[in-house]
Amino acid sequence: MHNSGVRAAVFGASDGLVSNVLLIVGLAGADASAGVIRAAGVAGLLAGAISMAAGEYVSVRAQNDLVARELQKEQLALAEDPEEETEELAQVYVERGMSPDQALEMAQLVMQNPEMALEVHAREELGISPNELASPFGSAIWSFLAFAVGALLPLVPWFVSSSPNVIWASVVAALIGAAAIGSSLALATGHSVLRGVARHVGIAVAAAVAIHFVGVALGSAVDL
Predict the structure, then answer these.
(1) Domain boundary residue among 108, 132, 156?
(2) Is the same domain home to 147 and 212?
């Protein structure tokens, strides 16, 4: 999976989990019926997943368009002024420790192949790689699926039971999901697993407690 796909999956799952558990806890606090909570949870899952996927697609597509524009500029510069571009590339190699003569020889060798020259200039000067652009469609799919999975976790218990106490099973499922996301991020970034779990679980708990009281206040004013 491309890095952008990983990012979309992680943030999608986190957003889906938090947004839907808050919706469920808020409605439960307002004494909504189990049927209302199930319907709202499914609607929240679908609406959020579609919105997340659309946003990811637009974001990645816009980023790719910007990269393509920069590549066109670089390609034009390589065609119109190859000498200056050779000197710029040689200077990059000098800054990386090569002697001026070695740097110039390397730059001239690279410039003999137009495709290689474009790729090297883009990577060295712009910090981008033409061959590693993310797929907007792929990122959107990962975002959609991850959000849906995250949003589904706190919703599953409501399809198993309609008991008033099922809200606790929903919260526990959400906390397990938050812990899994926190630990996965910590392992991927090399940070403390305990700290990652505590951060994600803590945020989920604080948000759930706050929205519960909002739901209680809402329930006293609106009949659900």
Answers:
(1) 132
(2) yes
**pLDDT tens sequence across 118-167:** 777 777 766 777 677 778 888 888 889 999 999 999 999 999 987 878 98
Total domain count for the chain? Answer: 2
Check residue 122 and report its DSSP letter.
I
195, 209: one domain = yes
Instruction: Indicate whether 21 and 104 sit together in one domain.
Output: no
Rounded to 5°, the CA angle 75-80-84 comes to 90
| Parent domain of 78 | 73-132
* Tokens encoding 206: 């604080």
Last residue of a domain, one of 132, 150, 181: 132
Rounded to an integer, what distance in angstroms lies between the CA atom of residue 15 and that of residue 48?
9
| pTM, two decimal places | 0.74
CA dist., res. 117 & res. 125, Å (int): 11
**Statement to judge: residues 140 and 189 lie in one domain:** yes
